[in-house]
Design brief:
Blueprint lengths: L2 H15 L4 H20 L11 H14 L2 H22 L23 H14 L4 H16 L3 H5 L6 E2 L4 E5 L5 E5 L2 H14 L22 H12 L10 H14 L4 H8 L4 H22 L4
Antiparallel strand pairs: 1-2, 2-3
């Protein structure tokens, strides 16, 4: 049985039976796609019955080289859930119980220096004038950074969620929690231009998803990751290459600019203030480095 079809069946069942939100399903789908993408790139049989412990271990090793321990653990959890479902539904062997996720240390979030990020976004804005595809890429970057969005939140944006007159967007975050977040003038201008000049080249439907794939449907998480990775890879000293790097950077730059922790917590949609507090460590770490370089008695 082909893995891609089974993954689709599994996700549909999660949605219908367990009632998981669309954002959660997209996140699960992205994690499952990572295994499918690994098999295709390495020309490995993508039938479910062919999955072995060795194949799972090769996939896990490759993921651990590109992602944080926390991200790898999340992906492994999704794969284990899928493998358990395969075993229960189709009696396909499940060797994933022998896989262990890497230990997650307390790493500071990856960020990009404010000046470097501003310069890179300005360059992306200039590049956006060449095509509708480049325009969408720029608007994705500007929106992620301006609103501090998670990638699933960006992918889930519909036109009805935008209020460009007031410069705000309605975001559906983790646990189906809704929040209203402000976006800056740059992001507002970019979104306005995209809706008027770029998006019509992808679809004539004036409603629905803000960001679109090549076939006119909602853009997927993997496509956003590709856009962000290519963008951040060109910035010397970037602290990461995922959409979350832009989210981390937005939070850190807000704190550096004088925002209080509670405001940043609400902005990011964190239910627990302790989750937000890690960004204070980022700012303090940056302050210490500047102190050590500049203070005569350091």
């Amino acid at each position: 049985m082909q893995l891609g079809e089974l993954m689709g069946e599994y996700l549909r069942e999660l949605h219908a039976v367990r009632g998981l939100s669309d954002a959660t399903i997209r996140s699960y789908g992205s994690d499952l796609d990572s295994l499918l993408d690994f098999l295709q790139r390495n020309k490995i049989d993508s039938e479910a019955e062919a999955l072995s412990l060795n194949i799972y271990r090769q996939w896990l090793f490759e993921e651990s080289r590109a992602l944080t321990a926390k991200s790898v653990a999340r992906r492994l959890s999704a794969i284990k859930g899928f493998a358990a479902w395969l075993n229960l539904r189709y009696e396909i062997a499940n060797p994933t119980h022998r896989l262990k996720a890497p230990k997650s240390g307390k790493h500071l979030p990856g960020t990009v220096a404010q000046s470097s990020l501003t310069e890179a976004l300005d360059a992306s804005e200039i590049s956006s004038r060449s095509s509708s595809e480049k325009l969408q890429e720029y608007v994705i970057l500007e929106t992620l950074y301006s609103a501090g969005l998670r990638v699933a939140e960006l992918v889930g944006l519909d036109i009805e969620h935008l209020d460009l007159t007031s410069g705000t967007i309605r975001v559906f975050g983790k646990g189906s929690k809704t929040r209203i977040v402000p976006i800056g003038l740059k992001a507002t201008s970019a979104l306005t231009k995209w809706l008027a000049e770029g998006r019509p080249d992808f679809t004539r439907d004036i409603n629905g998803p803000v960001f679109l794939g090549k076939r006119g449907g909602r853009i997927n998480v993997r496509a956003v990751y590709s856009v962000v990775h290519a963008f951040l890879n060109e910035i010397p000293g970037a602290g990461g290459f995922s959409p979350h790097t832009l989210r981390h950077s937005a939070a850190t730059h807000l704190l550096d600019g004088g925002s209080d922790l509670r405001t940043v917590q609400e902005f990011l949609g964190h239910s627990n203030l302790q989750t937000t507090q890690i960004y204070t460590h980022v700012s303090i770490d940056r302050l210490k480095k500047s102190f050590e370089k500049a203070h005569p008695r350091a």
